[in-house]
Every structure is written in C-alpha cells, then in structure tokens.
Design goal:
There is one protein chain. The chain is an alpha+beta fold. It has one domain: Acid Proteases (Cathepsin D, subunit A, domain 1, Beta Barrel), CATH 2.40.70.10. It contains seven helices and 32 strands. It has a six-stranded mixed barrel with strand order 6-7-14-8-13-12. Strands 18-19-22-30 form a four-stranded mixed beta sheet. Strands 21-20-25-26 form a four-stranded antiparallel beta sheet, with helices on one face. Strand 18 and strand 19 form a beta hairpin. It is globular, with a radius of gyration of 22 Å. The two termini are 31 Å apart. One of its GO terms (biological process) is proteolysis. One of its GO terms (molecular function) is aspartic-type endopeptidase activity. InterPro entries: Aspartic_peptidase_A1, PEPTIDASE_A1, Peptidase_aspartic_dom_sf, TAXi_C, TAXi_N. Keywords: Aspartyl protease, Disulfide bond, Hydrolase, Protease, Signal. It comes from Triticum urartu.
Amino acid sequence: MASPLFLCILLVVFGSYLSTISAAGNAYFRHKMSAPPPHQQEQSYDTLMFLLVMPRPDRAGAVVPLLHRHGPCAKSPSTDKPSSFAEALHRSRVRADYIMSRALRGRGTTTIMEGKVSIPAHLGTSVDSQEYVVTLGLGTPAVEQVLLMDTGSDLSWVQCAPCNSTDCYPQKDPLFDPRKSSTYAPIPCGSDVCKSLQSNHLGNGCSMNDNGTQSQCGYRVEYGGGLKTRGVYSNEALTLAPGEVVKDFHFGCAYKQRGADDKTDGLLGLGGAPQSLPVQTSALYGGSFSYCPPPVSSGTGFLALGAPSNTSGFSFTPMTDFMDDGTSYLVKLTGISVGGKQLRIPRKVFEGGLIVDCGNIISHLPSTPYAKLRSAFRAAMAAYPLIPSDDDDTCYNFTGYSDVTVPKVALTFTGGVTVDLDVPNGVLLDGCLAFTESGSDGYVGFLGNVQMRTLEMLYDARGGGLGFRAGAC
C-alpha cells in the first residue's frame, strides 16, 4: 500500500501536471478547468502549480510548514469534509460575531461606530472556522502536536493526559502526557504569569492541593457557542524547528473541553496579548511573525517567526489593535478594484477598518463596498450562470466550461498599498465570491484567509505595520 507521503507527492505532481492558468489581459485571468466539473467543490480550483517543498522566507528565525487541515499533506488530516460555501459562510459570520462580542464585553458596551451588535445566546464554535495547522514539538523529548493557527486567540493549548472521553474530544494523535516530559512544570499560583491571565479574562483561579493550599494556575477560555477549554497553565519546552527551541513556553494543558470536536491536538495563539507565541518569543524573534496560506488545500505554506532580513519585497500599511482589545489586528481599507477598474466608493464607509483574521474563512465588508464589489464581479462574470441563493450570494455553475475567465480583484489600504488577490483561489471559494456583508457603512469588517492565499502576511512588531508580499507560497 502506498504511504501517505508518497500519495501526497503524487497528488502534488499530478495537480501540477493538470494545472494551467494564463493571463487574458492584465485585469482578467483565464483558468483551465479540470474534470470533474468544479462548481460544488473547493478542490475545483486545486489546479495552480505549487512547490513540492515548503517555501523558504528570507529570515534567520524559525520557519515551519503551514498546511490546510483537510489537505493530504497534513500530519493528521481532518476526517471531516471540507466546508461547503454555505457552511464556511455560516462559520465565518459566527466567528465575526464572537470576536465583536469579545471586544465589546471588554469595553462594557454593545455599541460600535453608528450601529449596534446584538450578542446571540449561542455564538457557535469559533474554533471550527480554523483552516490551517502547524506541527510543533512539545516537551522533552519533543512530542509532535498538530495545532490550529489563530491570530484571533492568544493562549495556546493542547489536550493533556490523563483525560477521559467525557472531558476531552477524540483526536487522531495520542494526548500529550506531561508526566513523560522532563521539562514540564505547572505555573505557580500567585506568580506574575498567572496573574496576567486574569487581566486578559483567561484565568479562573488556582487549583487546590489535598492539604487545601493553592498550587497550580488554572486557565479557562470560552470561545462561544458552548465551546470551552480549561486546565492548568503550564511551562514547557516548545520545538519550532530543528535547533529552534523555546525553553519556557507558557501554554494551557487542557483537561476539560466542551463543545469541540476538531480532531486536532490543540490551538496556537498568534494574537497580540502577552500569552501569544509571538509576544512570548519576542526576546528571540523580536515579536514579528508572518505566514503564507497555500493557494490550494493540497499545497504547502509556512509560518515564520522573526522579521525578514530584507523587507523590500513587502508593501506595508499601518496596523493597530482593534478597540484596544490587545488581541486582534486592525488595518484600514480605502478602495477596491475589479477587472482593473477602481470602484467608486466613498472612503468614509471604510472607517471601521478590517480585522486581519486568519481564522475567518471569508472576508466581510460594509454594505456599500460589498454591494459595489458584488455588482462589478457579477457583471464581469455575466457569461456564467448564477446558482440561485437565499442569501443573495454570488455562486456559479461552471459545469461544461473548460475555461473560466475570472476578473482580478485588488484591495487598497492606507498608504496607497494595493494588494492583488490570487486568481482564482483568493477570490472564489467553492465557485462562490468569497466575500460577505459585515454590516452598515462604517462598520468593522474582516480580512479572511481566502483572500490571504499566496500572500506572505508580515506582522511587523517593530514598525507597527502589516506587510504584504505577493506570490510567497
């Protein structure tokens, strides 16, 4: 029987052989369709050529492969089916509501800009929207852990043994057992590290020893929709890559989960608060990090810690915290073009900004920008039949078409930075325009991971900006 690695390589080579994409003018791309007809599959666009080996960004820091959790090259690929567009849209909206409600609760208000956010009783499982995983080593000796990558979370955690089936969800890999690691230690109750959890609403007090004394630092994270994880905040060695070991990495050793069933081993937090990996490793890597989501689920991208030695290939736009929540990253969109033509959109409607969220599949835009984008895109794609939708989505039936011409979509950010989205993988998902409406004009939006495909997204802690580098993976 062929090994998974052989099948992965074979799929990459075969996909590369099938793939052809050619420019049809500067503003449009003609995409060669492959059988079977692709209108109901995200894999329909898995025809762009990509490298067999992981792309290597130019830097001295740690670099690890970034894979789609449903992809054949993932160490423990998810057994769940990839999300349809309708499912991705639902999860994306649920996650947006969760992030908004988290920020607003932190401010003690439910209003933002000129609108209001209604916080539903059940926000849904925000972690379910995560699409990309990295494999890191935890403990001594290092045990591989497949972790969902999330810029919208700070605290990293893995499921730990011993844990019974009622308290931990089933995962494909064995649970991490801290008893087998020579470098594991629970963080003491009352320490500054433990106290930092309380300031970020992540701590639930300290555990009690048999003699009644407080000993270990407890953590708790609630993602919404009944999804909760709690356990012991701990200290451990984290191996990022050969020779790249973080000796004192703080993470959650999870002993009780509710509402999760992701089959992965845990989550890697890349937000801006002290508990996140970039902040914890700032002395080693300067607090900067970048990642590049691959264009297709069978491709390979990367996650890199540390700034590149040369940033001349990047275009930077200013980046701030969203509502000073310390976790989410915010940039300002100023314009959109479709097929090389700039859309006439008043800049004031973008005032809410965009939260850059690798855990959100689809991008969210305020009402006017979304309507203008949808209208222009539909006009450019008028040759192809639309699929009727109750949500007024823009989805196409490409059955019978050997070639599809897709307009280029570009986003312009503060500072005149224009980013061309990958075509078709950064524009279409499951044959649908991968954008949705976030709310009224001036409302905050989200930059989702579909639009990030093939872009190296550099979070520059020193310069306070977000950098874009095209064609990085």
